[in-house]
C-alpha cells in the first residue's frame, strides 16, 4: 500500500490530521491498534478551547458540537468557602470554552473519515514503524489475518503516550523532560444534573476538587488523592461525602449527587519529548507531551500540533517548500511549553502537596485572593484557559 502520510493512532490527533489533509487533497492511511468502540468510549478530556471549536467548525465537523456542546463564558475559583467568578469572555474579547467530551469529538471525526472513503484500520495488531530517517518510511501491521505494509513520504505518530512511535526514535535523538506529581485525581461520572452552569475549581484544606459536566444530565467531578490510591477503597457514599466536604460553599452551593456511572484514579504528570521530529516521523499530541489535566490543555495541544503539521505538509506538497516541516518542532514546542507552564501553575496553586507546611497553604490562599481580586491576574488566567493563538 502506498500513501503520502501514514498516521499511527486514531485518537483526536490522528483523526484531525487525516481530515485536514483530506481537505487539502493529501492522501493518508490511519492505523489504530484498538477497536473503534474502545477509542470512542474511553473517557478523556471534555473542555475545548475557542481555537479548537473554531477549527472543528471550519473543518465541517462541528454540527453536533454546535448543537450539544455547552459553551461556558466563565468559570469559578472557590477557596475559603466562597466561589469567585472569572468572566472569560469579557476578559478575552468574547472567547470562551466549550464542554464537549473527547469521545464525542472522536465520533464526529470517525464519521467524517468514513465519509471520505480514505483508509482507517482499527484493531491492527503488531503495529511497527520502520526506516524513519529514510525517504520512504513504512508502517507494518496485521489486520484481518493479513500482513499489511504502508509505504509513505511522512509518518505522523499520533498514538499517545504509550504508543510505539516515540520509542522507535533512538534515545540519543530525543530528550525527555518529565515531572511526576505526588497526587492523582479520583474522577467520577455521575447521573446528576449539574448544579452550576460553569466549572468550579476548588482549593480546600483537604485537597483540590473540580466540578464539571458532560451534558445537562451528567456531572463530571474530581478530587485530589494519592497517586497510587486504590479505587476499590472508595464506596460511592464515601466519594460523595468527600466531594461535598470539599466543594460545599458558605452560601449553600454544592454539587448534586446521583448514581455514579464510572469511577477511577488517574496519576498526574508533565512530560515533553524534544524534538517532536525524527527523520520523516513527526510526533503529535500525547505521543510528544502530557500535561496535568488542571489546565484542560491535552486535547487542545493535540489539535494545535496537527494544525501546524497539516499546514507544513500542505506547503510541502503544493510548493515543494520544506521550511514549515523543518520548523514544526520549534513552532509546536513554543505553545507546548506555555501550556506546561500554565498547567503547572494551575496545579501548584490549587492542590495540597503532601510535604507542604501551613505556610505554603496560606501562601496559596493569598495567591488565589490576588487572582480573584486583580483584573490583570484574571486576564492572564482567562487568556491561557480559552487558549493562546495557534502559531504557524
In short:
By secondary structure, this protein is α+β, with helices and mostly antiparallel strands. It has helices at residues 12-23, 36-41, 50-59, 63-68, 88-91, 102-116, 236-247, 298-319, 323-350, 358-373, 375-386, and strands at residues 5-8, 28-31, 47-48, 70-72, 75-79, 82-86, 97-99, 120-121, 125-130, 138-143, 146-151, 154-157, 175-191, 200-203, 209-213, 219-225, 259-274, 277-278, 281-283, 289-290.
Would you kindly provide a written description of the structure presented here, covering whatever features stand out?
By secondary structure, this protein is an alpha+beta fold. It folds into 2 domains: 228 residues, FAD/NAD(P)-binding domain (3-Layer(bba) Sandwich); 121 residues, D-Amino Acid Oxidase, subunit A, domain 2 (D-Amino Acid Oxidase, Chain A, domain 2, 2-Layer Sandwich), CATH 3.30.9.10. It is 36% helix and 27% strand. It has 11 helices and 20 strands. It has an 8-stranded mixed sheet. Helix 10 crosses helix 11. The protein is globular.
Amino acid at each position: 500500500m502506498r500513501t503520502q502520510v501514514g498516521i499511527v493512532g486514531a485518537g483526536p490527533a490522528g483523526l484531525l490530521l487525516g481530515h485536514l489533509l483530506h481537505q487539502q487533497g493529501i492522501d493518508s492511511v490511519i492505523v489504530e491498534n484498538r477497536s473503534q468502540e474502545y477509542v470512542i468510549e474511553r473517557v478523556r478530556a471534555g473542555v475545548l478551547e475557542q481555537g479548537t471549536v473554531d477549527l472543528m467548525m471550519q473543518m465541517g465537523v462541528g454540527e453536533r458540537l454546535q448543537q450539544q456542546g455547552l459553551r461556558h463564558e466563565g468559570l469559578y475559583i472557590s477557596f475559603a468557602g466562597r466561589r469567585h467568578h472569572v468572566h472569560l469572555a469579557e476578559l478575552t474579547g468574547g472567547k470562551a470554552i466549550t464542554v464537549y467530551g473527547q469521545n464525542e469529538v472522536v465520533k464526529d471525526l470517525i464519521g467524517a473519515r468514513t465519509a471520505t472513503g480514505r483508509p482507517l484500520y482499527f484493531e491492527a495488531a503488531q503495529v511497527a514503524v520502520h526506516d524513519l530517517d529514510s525517504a520512504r518510511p513504512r508502517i507494518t501491521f496485521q489486520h484481518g489475518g493479513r500482513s499489511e505494509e504502508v509505504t509513505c513520504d511522512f509518518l505522523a505518530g499520533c498514538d499517545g503516550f504509550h504508543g510505539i512511535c516515540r520509542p522507535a526514535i533512538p534515545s540519543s535523538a530525543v530528550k525527555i523532560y518529565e515531572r511526576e506529581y505526588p497526587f492523582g485525581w479520583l474522577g467520577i461520572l455521575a447521573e446528576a444534573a449539574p448544579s452550576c452552569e460553569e466549572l468550579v475549581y476548588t482549593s480546600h484544606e483537604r485537597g483540590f476538587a473540580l466540578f464539571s459536566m458532560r451534558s445537562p444530565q451528567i456531572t463530571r467531578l474530581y478530587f485530589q488523592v494519592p497517586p497510587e490510591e486504590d479505587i476499590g477503597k472508595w464506596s460511592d457514599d464515601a466519594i460523595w461525602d468527600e466531594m461535598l466536604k470539599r466543594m460545599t460553599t458558605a452560601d449553600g452551593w454544592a454539587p448534586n449527587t446521583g448514581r455514579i456511572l464510572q469511577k477511577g484514579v488517574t496519576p498526574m504528570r508533565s512530560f515533553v519529548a524534544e524534538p517532536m521530529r525524527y527523520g520523516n516521523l513527526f510526533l503529535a499530541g500525547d505521543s510528544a507531551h502530557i500535561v496535568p489535566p488542571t489546565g484542560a490543555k491535552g486535547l487542545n495541544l493535540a489539535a494545535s500540533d496537527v494544525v501546524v503539521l497539516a499546514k507544513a505538509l500542505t506547503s510541502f506538497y503544493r510548493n515543494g517548500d520544506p521550511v514549515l516541516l523543518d520548523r514544526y518542532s520549534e513552532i509546536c514546542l513554543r505553545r507546548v511549553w506555555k501550556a506546561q507552564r500554565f498547567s503547572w501553575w494551575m496545579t501548584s496553586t490549587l492542590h495540597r502537596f503532601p510535604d507542604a507546611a501551613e505556610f505554603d497553604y496560606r501562601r496559596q490562599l493569598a495567591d488565589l485572593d490576588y487572582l480573584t481580586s486583580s483584573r490583570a491576574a484574571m486576564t492572564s488566567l482567562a487568556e491561557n484557559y480559552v487558549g493562546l493563538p495557534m502559531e504557524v
